[in-house]
Amino acid sequence: MTGVPTATPRPEDVSLAGRVVVVTGAARGIGRAVAETAASFGADVALLDRDPAVDEVAERIVSAGRRVVVGHLDVRDRPAVVEVTQRIDAEFGGVHGLVNNAGGTFVAEFMSSNERGDAALVAENFTSVLDVTRAVVPLMRSGGSIVNVTSSEAFQAAPGFAVYSAMKAATEQLTRTLALELAASGIRVNAVAPDGMPTPGDESLAAEVAERSRFVPPPRPPSGDFAPPEAAAGVVAFLLGDLAGFVTGASISVDGGLRAAGGWHLRS
Fold first, then answer.
1. What pTM value is reported for the model?
2. I need a labelling partner for 197 at 20 to 30 A (CA). Which of 34, 146, 222, 260 fits?
3. Cβ–Cβ contacts within 10 Å for residue 117, how many?
4. CATH for 14-252, among 3.30.230.70, 3.40.50.720, 3.20.19.10, 3.30.390.10?
């Protein structure tokens, strides 16, 4: 499908026309922005999310002239993941791109959490990536591109989010290993690590941190302001397309410089 560029890049190399992209967590935030951006670049899309708002995203994409398959499911449900990938294959005849975006967290210091909470974080932020990737890779018969959405917390301490950040770090490592294992199949595997992009749920998390945590993150990105989810979606679109044909095993920070600036610090 995609390969190493051998000539001067052209504007049309940005296009995703004729390709099928699967996006998890597609109802809101970065997932919604990625799905709509991929469609605007010409891709047909499969939207996976348990949030009913995914139907509104599908309607906008269909009205723009692209084909859509919607999977109303929790990506932690393995049988449901297998069923929806079979539907995607039947509808589209294969997949060219996968964006593992689904995830979530809550505020709890490590010693205050419990086994049930830990299991939920592991399943939502890591095991689901394993299951969806294993289900989709066989549909990438002509090669493809996988993009895993992690977080700047994968690279720094994250008090109150220990298991979540550990799972994002695990996904970063998985990205590098799969880049090697899947290279022979023509599949590239990369990650984007966003931060500084307010998404649904962030306000309540920020309020909990302000109330309960002894630590605070940097107040704003070094770039000077926060960014919408579309800032991450543009980088994902690049990684899905031909311009990134020689990029695999990489992780791109999309955070306005937050990772470069450093991590959480004690309240003064």
1. 0.94
2. 146
3. 13
4. 3.40.50.720
